Amino acid sequence: xxxxxxFTVDYVINPWMDPTVPVDTDRALTQWLALREVFxxxxxxVHVVDPQPGLPDMVYAANGGLSVGGxxxxxxxxxxxxxxxxxxxxxxxxxxxxxxxxxxxxxxEGEGDFLVVGDVILAGxxxxxxxxxxxxxxxxxxxxxxxxxxxDPRYYHLDTALGVLDDTNIAYYPPAFGPxxxxxxxxxxxxxxIASDEDAAVLGLNLVSDxxxxxxxxxxxxxTNELRAAGYExxxxxxxxxxxxxGGIKCCTLELRLSNxxxxxxxxxxxxxxxxxxxxxxxxxxxxxxxxxxxxxxPLPVTAATAEGAWITDGDGRRYLDCLxxxxxxxxxxxxxxxxxAAHEQLNRVTLTSRAFRSDRLEPFCAALSALCAKDMVLPMxxxxxxxxxxxxxxxxxxxxxxxxxxxxxxxxxxxxxxxGRTISIVSFSDDPDARTGFGPFTPGxxxxxxxxxxxxxxxxxxxTVAVLVEPIQGESGIIVPPDDYxxxxxxxxxxxNVLMIADEIQSGLGRTGKTFAVQHWDVEPDVYTLGKALxxxxxxxxxxxxxxxxxxxxxxxxxxxxFGGNPLAAAVGHTVVDMLADGTWxxxxxxxxxxxxxxLRDLVGHGVLAVRGLGLWAxxxxxxxxxxxxxxxxxxxxxxxxxxxxxxxxxxxxxxLVITDDEIDWAVERLAEALRS
Length: 678
Known about the structure:
Aspartate Aminotransferase, domain 2, 31% helix, seven-stranded mixed beta sheet, alpha/beta, L-arginine/glycine Amidinotransferase, Chain A, Class-III_PLP-dep_AT, 3 domains, transferase, four-stranded mixed beta sheet, elongated
């Protein structure tokens, strides 16, 4: 599918198009996103092809090619306005591993005019695809191609007048076809469902079926009832804005099939990408792959070239299921079209002013984020570490200005096993030797107590304590979930002692655990949130400190700042993320999918797994050390097409994008079981 980011009607190449009728591109994108979500809710994998400026019809992805019987054919368009699309789809199909990609000599517009019914291809001609090209497609695919003559210009592609229901049956609109073709269809499909004039007039036949569920327009009630009476389950979608360009559900959907003829669903599509090649386990060899990059990471030997949804593809076309999600920064999947569209729009307006001037994006973003957090104010920054540093500065300033702590005496209590970033101040209160060794002297003013121990925290507090900084769930330590009385106890203690409770929700927040914020699992509201990672939608770094005016109001001009903090591009992206979280759909998805993931992971306890922890789509997995280190297991998983990351010892962590499907979860856990067996 290709999102309608550039969709307009500026020219006429079919009778549906009228440049005098206004097109609402934002509404078209909203409708398209709803269609994509329907496909994913039915268990199908959706690959997204980037839209191209100047190609407003590229949203109609079905015209981009044909994939059947292990053969992939890219389109050759009839009109010059769409001609460049063929090269874009050919390139995408090749780089995404669906090649080799064939190109015909003759004009053909992909699944617009070639519809697969079982072991035959029905092929339309008369307006777009040339009749001679039918023979080319038959030769390339090895399947019989049946020519059908289209005679009504409103139904210029076969998929506008005929819908494939399953491997043996169709629905169609007879008046769209010439007499010989009508007779042929009646003979081939005696049980076909016949569409009415009203059905055809709203492109009711422009549908997508998996053999059971039929996704179709909501504007064809007669056809909907006929399909339901025939035993199909219909899912109706409003795609009225895209109808202005002469397309519907099927037009927006290019189906990709494996050699068995079935559409590439979740399980089969995954298996296809992981044939051949192994990954090296030689850490010492890794720096040579990137000789000009500082060696502050030891990455898995996987090099991403493209990514979409929950999948990453390397330069050789090998696909990997991303179960790390960039440490929760890619909560909404790689290149989510709504977020990408917001970024594209802002890129065309203004990206950076510094805070020396106002931008029209900043206040709306801060207002929306404040509402999501039920707070008054936002201090926008860039990275998660910046947000934590900023929160510490604010807490100290609050301690001096409001609480009355003597100057230079403010203390912040932190938890053992913490991870809040890697700046000098932050590693000053870390107990991870890798983070600390060789980086002193360290910043004073921090007191570390055991995580999960309210008593130790109470004992450490004194009159100079200004804040407690805590991760509701510790991520880097292995997804450590605290005792149920811990966070409520911290909240009570902070209230009683006039101490700020700062919740670091940079990894745990914004839907990851099945709630907007992890603290909500314990009905706790902190004084200060630090947010980052997912706030940037996987597009760019966006972070924030969120609190009420009596806390953030202690900052005055010149006391804190950031050239890029709150820049218009970041604000546009962050605002989109907040809007996406507003109705709770993403949080509910993380909760539901998380239950499945944790249930499947618990089945591995006693079979190479010692323990599983976490909430929502976030899991820490302790592997039997006899089976190898966490890095060893992650390397085996990469060989099997799953990307995960180890943390201390033999612990793995999983944080897949929230767009991951149930079947993809099952497949990933099965690969983990295989990695443990090997």
